Amino acid sequence: MIIKAPSRIHMSLIDLNGSYRRIDGGIGLALAEPQFILEIQKRDDNLVTLEFSDNIDDDEAILECSEKIPTAAEKTIQHFNIEDGFNFIVHQTYPPHSGFGSGTQIAVSTAHLITETMGIEVESRELSSIVGRGGTSGIGTYTHDLGGFILDGGHSVEEKPGFLPSGASKAKPATLIARYDFPEEWKILIAIPKIEKHMNGQDEVNVFQDCCPIPRDEVEKVSHLILMNLVPFMLEKDIKNFGWAVSELQKVGFNKLEHSLDDSYLPTMKAIEEAGAYGVGISSFGPVLYTVFDESNEYIVEKTKEIIGENGTVFVTKAQNHGFVIEK
Q: Rounded to whole angstroms, how far apart are CA atoms 115 and 81?
């Protein structure tokens, strides 16, 4: 049995102020590429083992899978009192700590394969909770399950009183507010500049604890931009104004904080926008940058390749308006 799970871009957290009795919340989008592809085979013993296809040569991705797959498997096995063992084969993955949401897809996909193999019916939100994902953002959980554009409502401050990233939070996955199909005709350009160090682990925890709460007026503006600009423009298929809203979201809230901590991306984002992009955003802490385009500005692909040059990767993908696929 094989599972194919989409990557995602996390476009913005909404409220890291908390004075309105909720925190977190976010928007994001499932991507058709890259995909995480994982196979499961039952073993005759109760061991959990792991293999990698020959095409996987990213040491960081191998290390992340080697840590997260056995851990997620053991949590799932213990939760459901499963006595069988399993062998996993990773056929395709993508760079960790890059903005694609690999951690959640790896962990939830592992749990999903085990429950499907054992004939256990369970929702992805519960699986995320079991394997310890989604404690800040629900974007990874719901793009895994549903695909498309996701808006989640975060957590009550009674459930989650402090500011923490998903990997360090014990809260349940965030509440889903809305899920929409993303315009099929819009293409998504991904640009990944080369960087020396990814933001993750304790560094990420420190950002949430040292830099939050974010000013109340900024989270109010983030909420307004999402509710009254970005989502309506998406539903109206107004790509230029949707792109404008993406760029405006970089100037406020948590995105603004990210850029203040590491402004190395800003010249690249500005150059892509000046080259004709409708708007440029950063996914999570980066380095993934994204913009949407159509036939009117397809030239932005070659322009961005020139801007990135040899110091990164540029490719075109689309939104995936469905969740994971399991092949038996």
A: 11
* HEC secondary structure over 133-145: CCCCCCHHHHHHH
């995480």: which residue's tokens? 36
Cα–Cα distance between 91 and 39 in angstroms, integer? 7
Tell how strand 85-92 and strand 149-152 pair up.
unpaired
Q: What distance, in Å, lies between the first and last C-alpha atoms of the chain?
A: 4
Q: Does domain 2-180+321-327 have CATH number 3.90.550.10?
A: no
Query: In whole angstroms, how far apart are CA 283 and each of 11, 129, 233?
Result: 5, 23, 20
The pLDDT tens digits of the residues spanning 210-249 come to 989 999 999 999 999 999 999 999 999 999 999 999 999 9
| β-strands 2-15, 325-327 pairing | antiparallel
d(C-alpha 111, C-alpha 114), whole Å:
5
Q: What does pTM read for this prediction?
A: 0.94
Segments making up each domain of the chain, as ranges: 2-180+321-327, 187-317
Asked: is 187-317 a CATH 3.20.20.30 domain? The reply is no
pLDDT digits (tens, 9 = 90+) for 183-212: 999 999 999 998 776 666 687 888 888 989
- What is the largest distance, in Å, between two alpha-carbon atoms of the chain? 59
Which residues, 6+ apart, have CB-to-CB distance to 162 below 8 Å? 209
Q: CA–CA separation, 203 vs 242, rounded Å?
A: 32
**Residue 40 forms beta bridges with which residues?**
88
